[in-house]
Amino acid sequence: MTAALAARSTAPDRLEKALGVLALVMLAFIVAALFKGIADWPAIPSGIWLHLASIMLALILTPVLLWRQRGTTAHRTLGYVWSGAMFLTAVDSLFVTTSNPGHFSPIHILSVMTIVLVPVLVLAARSHNVARHRRTVRGLIIGALLIAGFFTFPFNRLLGHWLFS
């Protein structure tokens, strides 16, 4: 396949297949942590539950959107749901701060980037700018889902505390 054809193709490439797998791995770690922390559930604020629910929805939809046929009504509909989940997760994360209220961590930079990039993603899709849409999706998955997700486990954060204790 030539480079020009690959750029126009909507079929998942190796990176997108890998990103889908990594999203499922991240989801598995979150689910495992949740079950290990079941005793603490009543003490968890509703904002954290909203954050977890919206990010888990995005993680579930990621491989579906990356691996299935694109440009269909189903892809568009699920894409809007994924975009909404990502946006909600990012906005909600601004209220999920460390033990010192109002103290933001470096991970919140990714939240602000997500708030900016989700509309870019949607506008690129609506204008049929496939290349920009694809780049933005990949960036959001790598940065907002995988990198930000990874940093929810170390440093005695809630999911890491549950998973590794």
Give a concise summary:
The chain has 165 residues and is mainly alpha-helical. Helix content is 73%, strand content 0%.
Q: Could you walk me through the main structural features you see in this protein, from its secondary elements to its overall organization?
A:
The model has no long low-confidence stretch (mean pLDDT 90). The protein is built from 7 helices and no strands. It has one domain. By secondary structure, the chain is mostly helical.
Instruction: Show unreliable segments.
Output: none
Radius of gyration (CA) equals: 17 Å
In whole angstroms, the N-to-C terminal distance is 49 Å
Number of helices: 7
For the record, the count of structural domains works out to: 1
Number of strands: 0
Label the structural class.
mainly alpha
Estimate the mean pLDDT confidence.
Answer: 90
Proportion of helical residues: over 70%
Query: Sheet with the most strands?
Result: none
- The succession of helices and strands, N to C, reads HHHHHHH
Question: What's the overall geometry?
Answer: globular
The oligomeric status of these chains comes to single chain
List the helices and strands and how they pair.
Blueprint: H1 3-8, H2 14-36, H3 46-67, H4 73-93, H5 107-126, H6 130-150, H7 158-164
